[in-house]
Amino acid sequence: MLQEHKPPLVSTYSIAACDLERGQWGVATQSKFLAVGSIVPWAEPGAGAIATQAYANPRYGPDGLALLRQGLSAEEVVRRLTEADDGRDERQLGVVDAAGQGATYTGSGCLDWAGGRAGAGFAAQGNILVSSETVGALAGSFEGSEGSLAGRLLEALAAAQAAGGDKRGQQSAAVLVVERDGGYAGLTDTLVDLRVDDHEAPIEELRRLYVLHQQLFGKTPRDQWLPIDDELRAEIDERLARLGYASLADWAGDANLEERVEGDGEIDPVVLAELRRRR
């Protein structure tokens, strides 16, 4: 008789959340597990966000999003997914729906400390944690923060780690945020999708990547762009010539900053700062 083998345990903590004003849903997670971002986070704009972990059932992601797409509440999605799953006692799940309601589930067979907390706009959960303070910090940080959803999720991860984190340590982390047509060139719904698959300090590395992501793909409000007067134009032309470029657009393309260049009467201060940094 063949012996049944369980998959590796995704001991982790995560937070699924939304920003209804911006039309964004997302998930952030950290674990002593290789490439946690390949399993835990799922999100779809206008539908919701899902985190699946412990002895994770990856089908909770697409199946849960399909239910959310039908307009079901987070609590109903959790109920339907877990009731249909014979392995539910060892599962952990967090869901945020289209209306911003959060729901979390921890099976009775999950390893201590395991539990979750849900509120308006979020669902936070974790298993094999040092203590309940990790989830408390996840939730408290998110509830008390402002700014971009991705930034709030990353700060929540950092707060959870500072409160104790995963009992087994750190290895990987990820953040996923979606917004309708909010991604690259307005042609994708994926606003942020960053993963650190194997690192001794994955949250810090994820934060570093997010800063770089914002530099390349973020958007400075147009009223903060700088007018290009004669003096600034002469400086820009001189710097471009020194670097061997005929135009700002040509240089920006090579610098991966083309999303931040539009017209020639104004310049994004992020682009100007990077141009000045180049030698």
Walk me through what this model shows.
The mean pLDDT is 94. The relative contact order is 0.13. A hairpin with a 2-residue loop joins strand 7 and strand 8. Helix content is 33%, strand content 24%. It has helices at 60-69, 74-83, 133-143, 149-162, 202-217, 230-243, 248-254, 269-277; strands at 12-19, 24-31, 41-44, 48-54, 91-96, 102-106, 115-119, 122-126, 172-179, 190-196, 226-227, 266-267. The strands form 3 sheets. Strands 7-8-1-2-9-10 form a 6-stranded antiparallel β-sheet, covered by helices on one side. It has a 4-stranded antiparallel β-sheet with strand order 3-4-5-6, with helices on one face. Strands 11-12 form a two-stranded antiparallel sheet. It is an alpha+beta fold.
